Amino acid sequence: MGSLSHERKYDTSAPPSSPCALKYIEHHVSKLDTLACVAIKYGVEKSIASPGHGILAVDESNATCGKRLASIGLENTEQNRQAYRQLLLTTSGLGAYISGAILYEETLYQSTIDGKKFVDCLHHEKIMPSIKVDKGLVPLPGSNNESWCQGLDGLASRCAEYYKHGARFAKWRTAVSIPSGPSTLVVKEAAWGLARYAAIAQVAISLHQLKSTNSSTSKKKPAEKYIQVVSVDNHEFWFMGFMHYDSAVKSLQDALHDAQNIKPVTTASSV
């Protein structure tokens, strides 16, 4: 059975100075492009990055969930969505392979048919509940037909409420369209949004995801998704909004150290 009691050992030595840290990042950043890495809040001892475990993404919006239900001839009702999510979240032995589960807002407050909260079902399997906090993409004015991610308005109060109901880390995903440029504007907007999200949502362990999309890619071979540990534009936006500079560098060093000790998974999965 999987456990979240895995202790993380932190090096207590002082982090490198700013110039050295940036050189360290630039030297090691290539090691991050094939591995999902989690930026963990400084001082957190219990990890969702336990060896041999993954993160289950069940944060489909109600509209997306409706498409899944329609494929098997079911209506998009709350009852059917609840039954679908119960099938996933109450699977016996799930905690042996999953350390965290990202939920949609509706799911966070839902229960099984027997009245047991889904969050409690996850706790029983020692799986850490998470919540998707972004509000999706909308057109970005002045861009090359690109989008930006909304959801910063009211984020602090929503995070406090989500934490009260059991969520212990959060996900914010933006998208950058590769064939459309990407334009400098959309890259900076994505980085700024991720940084502001991280600064606001530090009541939880923040999980950052930057999704690259390529419309010319075959649907049979979707674009790779990965966790973006280092932001863009000489890391300016990352360090503006993440944590104190030294803590941000320390978290990156820990992620790089862990990345060297984790073997890539061979089964298909997405975060």
UniProtKB/TrEMBL annotation:
Enzyme class label: lyase
Query: Which Gene Ontology BP annotations are present?
Result: glycolytic process
Molecular function per GO: fructose-bisphosphate aldolase activity
- Keyword annotations of the record: Glycolysis, Lyase
InterPro entries per UniProt: Aldolase_TIM (IPR013785), FBA_I (IPR000741)
Asked whether the keyword Lyase is assigned, the reply is: yes
User: Which positions are tagged coiled coil?
Assistant: none
Could you tell me what reaction this enzyme catalyses? beta-D-fructose 1,6-bisphosphate = D-glyceraldehyde 3-phosphate + dihydroxyacetone phosphate
**Entry annotated with the keyword Lyase:** yes
Annotated pathway: Carbohydrate degradation; glycolysis; D-glyceraldehyde 3-phosphate and glycerone phosphate from D-glucose: step 4/4
Instruction: Family membership, please give it.
Output: Belongs to the class I fructose-bisphosphate aldolase family.
The record ties this protein, via PANTHER family, to: FRUCTOSE-BISPHOSPHATE ALDOLASE
Q: What is this protein called?
A: fructose-bisphosphate aldolase
